[in-house]
Amino acid sequence: MNKEQLKKKVGQRIVELRSQKGWSQSDLARACDKDRQALEKLENGKVNPTIYSLLEIAKALEVPLKKLVDF
């Protein structure tokens, strides 16, 4: 898997988990103190998130970090 594919997979996983909670992008952005546009770029695989950003998102979604990156 190359870098671009990995970014897209992580973004897709975040969308799946966010949707399971019934949250909008804005809801998740508020929960992890990010702006919605940054979250949108992450979900679309346009940015390479830091491990800390992924940890904040995982905490907000109440899932282990591993769930965001375990394919």
From TrEMBL:
Domain HTH cro/C1-type: from-to ranges: 14-68
Record keywords: DNA-binding, Transcription, Transcription regulation
Domain of life: Bacteria
Transmembrane segments: none
One MF annotation (Gene Ontology) recorded for this entry: DNA-binding transcription factor activity
Pfam families (alphabetical): HTH_3
Record flagged with keyword DNA-binding: yes
Cellular component annotations (GO), alphabetically ordered: cytosol
Xref: InterPro entries: Cro/C1-type_HTH, Lambda_DNA-bd_dom_sf, TransReg_Diox_bact_type
Protein name per the record: XRE family transcriptional regulator
Species: Flavivirga eckloniae
Top-level taxonomy: Bacteria, Pseudomonadati, Bacteroidota, Flavobacteriia, Flavobacteriales
